[in-house]
Amino acid sequence: MSKPKQSTRASSASIQERRKAQLQRQKKKTVILLTVGILLVVVLFAAMFVLASKNTGSPGSPASPVSFPYDKLPRLGAADAPVKLVEFGDFKCPACARFSGEVKPQLVEDYIDKGKAALYFVNMSFLGPDSKTASFAALSVYHQNSEAFWKYYDALYANQGDENTEWATEDFLVELAQKEKIDIDYNLLRKDIKERTYADELADDNAIAENNHVTSTPSLFINGIKTNEPFNLEAIVKAIETASKAVETE
């Protein structure tokens, strides 16, 4: 009688082993399926991100160039120039003074004077209270004599005070215009500074900066596309040439 019992026990143990092996195979399949599912989800989201990046971009990217109100901005060069350069600057910004002294003259010589490009300026007054004061003065000059704006622009940067002090006072700004013989009414300049005549226009300029995620000065856009290297003349020249060719093929 003992032999059948041993056979039954052996049979039961075999069944349990088969069940364990079956459960292990099912677990492995479940793990594999979960892993594949996770990978598919990751790939799907990555593809969606790449597609979204191609279709939409931040303002100033090649996918989403900025459309500026060019006719309302100070302009150096021909209005019909095929390449439009837009500088965001703060008259208290030392880096902007460097741009004015090093980069702008080269752009003027190689492109602006030849009618290939025009330079536009957007006030971005954020470094101090007198950033706004300087912008009020510059806007007053612009509205009195648009051609004199750039001479005053250069004078402001060339005579820039310390970034951490309030040097752009009403007296300083008027006296600088007189010293440089800027062809405007100096009494009107003082009045415009004192009464903040162009406060709304300055607010519009700062809004252009904010709406297009401009957070530092100088920032340079070339036909609506932002360059991340405003001091790299080689990169700027390449971007200008690319923009020029794109206009030609339109």
TrEMBL record:
One of its GO terms (molecular function) is oxidoreductase activity. Residues 1-15 have a biased composition (Polar residues). Keywords: Disulfide bond, Membrane, Oxidoreductase, Redox-active center, Signal, Transmembrane, Transmembrane helix. The chain crosses the membrane at residues 30-52. InterPro entries: Thioredoxin-like_fold, Thioredoxin-like_sf. Residues 1-20 are annotated as: Disordered. It holds the Pfam family Thioredoxin_4. It comes from the Bacteria. Residues 75-241 form the Thioredoxin-like fold domain. Gene3D superfamilies: Glutaredoxin. Belongs to the thioredoxin family. DsbA subfamily. PANTHER family: DISULFIDE BOND FORMATION PROTEIN D (PTHR13887:SF14), GLUTATHIONE S-TRANSFERASE KAPPA (PTHR13887). This is DSBA oxidoreductase. It comes from Paenibacillus sabinae T27.
